[in-house]
Amino acid sequence: IVCPNAEAASRVAAESIAATIDSALKSRGKAILGLATGATPEVVYANLAARHRAGGLSFQKVVTYNLDEYYPIQPIDPLSYRSYMHRHLFSRVDLPANQAHVLDGTVPEAFVREHTAEFDRWIEADGGLDLQLLGIGRNGHIGFNEPAEWSVAEAAAAPTRLVELHPVTRADAVREFGDAAKVIPRALTMGVKQILSARAIVMLATGPRKASIVAQALRGPVTTAVPASLLQTVADRVVWILDEPAAAEL
Ligand code: GLP
Prior knowledge:
One of its GO terms (molecular function) is glucosamine-6-phosphate deaminase activity. It comes from Paludisphaera borealis. Residues 5-240 form the Glucosamine/galactosamine-6-phosphate isomerase domain. This is Glucosamine-6-phosphate deaminase 1. Its EC number is 3.5.99.6. This protein is of the alpha/beta class. It has a single domain (2-243), classed as 3-Layer(aba) Sandwich (Rossmann fold), CATH 3.40.50. It has eight helices and ten strands. The strands form two sheets. The chain has a seven-stranded parallel beta sheet with strand order 1-10-9-6-2-3-5, with helices on one face. It has a three-stranded antiparallel beta sheet with strand order 4-8-7. Helix 2 (42-53) links the parallel strand 2 and strand 3. The chain is globular and about 45 Å long. 44% of the residues are buried. Bound molecules: 2-amino-2-deoxy-6-O-phosphono-alpha-D-glucopyranose. 2-amino-2-deoxy-6-O-phosphono-alpha-D-glucopyranose is lined by residues 36-40, 67-68, 135-137, 143-144, 169.
């Protein structure tokens, strides 16, 4: 779906999330959402919060799992994805606090594997994700699944885990951290396996900086050098929502 601008693209993404909540509540009594951070989805969350305020959308029966979190980081750090989610969505809707899951950047390293495995088990115990909202990094990352030298099969099976951030990701994060030396170089990320297992995947990409990587991910070969290209393997469940600048190289 190509929209004239980022605002319109964000509205389409928010509509699709609201429709998923509605239909999952009708069929199963709860809705399980995978959420993303970054600059791109901010307007999506503003739109969902506005729908909640207007009275049409409740998050009482919604369960959320966020894609990623810096490691290590305190949840109250304004740069944590937990605090991003609090600012943009959690504090603005009626989502019960114990139904909002963000990977914990304070877990001691010796317990990270246990924590990330538990995160995957929780998603599975909830019946899997009804919808995963995604953004794309300039290097094609989804969540913090970075370009890596491993096979497509290995990448597709990757569980939630601790990763090192790619140089392009670290360079882009200077925007948030203000200084290259302050960028936290590691993160916890949902694995490609969980992402690709979602019953619906909404990829939102806006702005001219994303045009080249969007074209590579959508039209190029399926390769772990561009993690988002793995979405081609589940194409029937993926919707790409773009604005015109992000779609310019298609
Ligand atoms: C961030 C996040 C991703 C996000 C991407 C794009 O680092 N880990 O989940 O989709 O990079 O961010 P932005 O929307 O700010 O371009």
